[in-house]
Input
Amino acid sequence: MCGIIGIVGVGPVAPRVVESLRRLEYRGYDSAGIAAHVGGRLDRRRAKGKIRDLEAVLAEEPLHATTGLGHTRWATHGAPSVRNAHPQKSGRVMLVHNGIIENFAALKAELKAMGREFESETDTEVVAQLIDVGLEAGKAPIDAFKAALGRISGAYALGALIEGHENLILGARRGSPLVVGYGEGEMFLGSDALAVGPFTHRISYLDEGDFVAIDHHGARIFDASGQPVERAIRAVSASAALVEKGNYRHFMEKEIHDQPDACQHTLSAYLDPIAGVAAAPEGFDFTTIDRLQILACGTAYYAGLVARYLIEDLAGLPTDVEVASEFRYRNPAVAPSTLALAVSQSGETADTLAALRWCKAKGLRTAAIVNAPESTMSREVDLLWPTHAGPEVCVLSTKAFTAQVTALTALGIAAARARARIDAEEEKRLVEVLLEAPRLLSEALEAVEDQVRPIALDVSRARDVLYLGRGPMFGLALEGALKLKEGSYIHAEGYAAGEMKHGPIALIDEDTPVIVVAPSDHFFEKTMSNISEVIARNGSVILVTDERGAAHAPANAKVVTVPECDPLIAPLIFATPLQLLAYQVGVSKGADVDQPRNLAKSVTVE
Ligand code: M6R
Output
């Protein structure tokens, strides 16, 4: 993940950009750069390494300007180097970018065929080139920018300077946040409220698909269709900036919508999109273990359950998943060639920590997928495999869950390749599929929000709700039920769809909604038989599926349709309607979704 700061200012811009980049270093720190208008021309300074390395470059070769754009990078496309650092340049354009441009390879080929030359390996340079092509064709900056946005797909936040337009910064967001800051005769663009915090506390959060032009006079914001729009300006205190709700009513809603970004940031740590390979951060040889023991609680446990299907299927690596509170007290028999893998958002959950320590004491190697980098688990394990979901404030875990599944999926691919279960070509294909997840998460959120609303009304009247799924969707059914319980206090149970006839079918009546999570994968037909069993008993079915699945939905089922996707990333995409449903039901019942009764964000007691 990367940090962005843009300033249309009145004083020297370089020291202010550096000040902001220092705050953003937590988002990425393998290289950094700044571009500015100097004497009617665009100039830039870049450095590999930390912000202090950029400062050293600026001390040698200062940039005297009042408008500038800065970036701190966490490499995705192209190794950390000065050449790949942002701002990327093409003709009259300098561009910074957070995110992934999925179709960059096709666009690059097209631009090369037009005779254009590239100086970096980044996907970002493709966007700079597209904007420059528009400018060369005589388009105004905002039109050239808009035309380029129309060509790219993926999840991103962008900031651009255009030579000859001294006091202008262009920005756009899709899947990655971007804020506009309002100062006194100055304007700012930032990847989050923290970026602009040193200069102003008056902030607008751009909505999905928005693009913006800022200058000394203010901001002109346009929605995805190009229509001018207003986005509310709100006051954000510096300390609150990291954990701000933005335009959302609750942290839960915000964090659900943070997921494309959280997924993408997590992927940056595990995938090399150019080489098409997946690897554990800091490297790990999966041929040195014979078994994986996943230990976790609550939602993190369900992430493990989902991943077990993927890891065993892809990598053939035997994988056990157990709730840590059971594992730690049952004197389990574990082989020495087992890797104990804790999964935890907080890295502080007492049961998970104790299970991990037990494994360590038995001489097992330990790893942890953790969202809080400074946590106890992060410090105690042999291998730290981070998720980069950012701070999760709502007690109900949402973005941490999908970030955990993201990391586990990437590890599954890495294990499959190491264990020779897939070849380089298949690894590349899987990596490409996983790289699509941030965009598809974004599309899913947009697609399901309104579909879920009428269903939430029905569910909010229910006393009990059943969730069913097969394969990886079984874990998701459990997670969906947990979210509903926590968010709305409605009794909900998740079951493996095939288990329903062994008991829960006794609960079926017209007042008990049965939420069936069923992508059109190889489990689909079997799950459809379970749906028929529910309908035959007058049960009311809510089918969460994709377009192909929806075509086979029984007439009397209510259907929520998510975008079609590869089975590899279906658990990520299918999580969104379940989270939004729990959120909307909770809100409609007046529950405190961010801090439900009796719960705590970090459970540090056993
Ligand atoms: O911090 P952890 O991921 O270790 O927390 C585990 C559970 O306490 C947590 O997932 C809990 O189940 C959430 N409230 C679920 O929304």
Observations:
- Residues 437-460 form the longest helix (24 residues).
